[in-house]
Amino acid sequence: MFKLLKVSKISGARLTRLSTPHGTIPGPFFMPIATRGAVKHLTAAEVGEMGADAVLANTYHLSQRPGEAIVAAAGGLHKMMGWRKPILTDSGGFQVFSLARYRQITDRGVRFRDPLSGAVSMLSPRRAISIQRKLGADIIMVLDECVGYGATRQQVAAAVDRTTRWARQSVRYRPIGQRRPLMFGIVQGGVYPELRRRSAAELTALPFDGFAIGGLAVGEQRSQMLSTLRNVLPLLPESLPRYLMGVGRPEEIVAAVRLGVDMFDCVIPTREARHGRLYVWSGGVPTFRAKGFYRTVAIKNAGNRRRFAPPDRRCSCLLCRRYTLAYLHHLYKVGEPLGARLATLHNLRFYLDLMERLRRAIRTGAL
After folding, report:
1. CATH number of the CATH domain containing 167
2. For 125-151, how does the pLDDT look when each residue is reduced to its tens digit (9 = 90+)?
3. Gap between the Cα atoms of 19 and 181, Å rounded
4. Which domain holds residue 342?
5. Would residue 367 count as lying in a domain?
6. Could you tell me which of 47, 3, 44, 10 has the C-alpha nearest to residue 26?
7. Among 168, 212, 292, 295, which has the highest number of CB atoms less than 10 A from its own CB?
8. What is the pLDDT of residues 74-86, one digit of tens each?
9. Cβ of 303: how many Cβ atoms within 10 Å?
């Protein structure tokens, strides 16, 4: 299921291979976000052709619309969205944080009120797994309680206790069989080292196929994120995959890879594209040891009106192969949807290229 191919001699970076029912993923790797069964502005074929080996979809949102029964009747999420590679589904635990105004937490699970329809639904540890099985996910996450930065120690401790209880319930419904989906536990604990240690100890005692570090990128400083990773990663089994949820910016991914993280997802490349910002390589071949290995381009800046060159000549995306920054600037200024589509293709290609370069650097001993 998981193979650790190499550990760097100069950092904690790891080359890995994760096998799932829908294919093998070389790591470290990044998963584009397909929350509701689609990466915004792109087809599944385009996402695969640009080099993505897995995508992330969301259990809660798909259970609301179209509903897991519809997805199952369509032949599963892979068939419905035309994606042949692995899918990881989040449990809905992040919505405990992001939809705080619309939910009520109990020891049984989370009661959500749909912001659009007002309908009430209950997401329990067992139901979260049941939904993900009906979606046909390759990697399923157990239900956890994600709390934002600024919560008191008492609140974070209560969330750790509840996350552990839910994890223990979840393993009772752990899939079996040769082509079963993999199940990951999620370590919580905020920025409190002793709570992170307790969460890691309790979860690693359970028979999970991998472990995620949750509850980061929710308002804390980058230094706190990295400090938390340094504390948590040595507590997780070397023989299983390590997944940092919801992170992050390119420099954060590089720092986390150096510490030994194998898996990432984040909305940043697609969200920044919609907001008119591109990620572009700086200078020559990046060493990842110095700051500034990339820069951002504000597409709508007036100075781009006459930039009749691609945003990055080294990039292989459709935007950089066929169009200019001036054309992209024009599309954004007139509100043409093609602009966001081209920028999304570019930013995701940048992130996937980043992961390819990181794997190459680990392989050659440069990282």
Report:
1. 3.20.20.105
2. 999 999 999 999 999 999 999 999 999
3. 10
4. 273-361
5. no
6. 3
7. 212
8. 999 999 999 999 9
9. 9
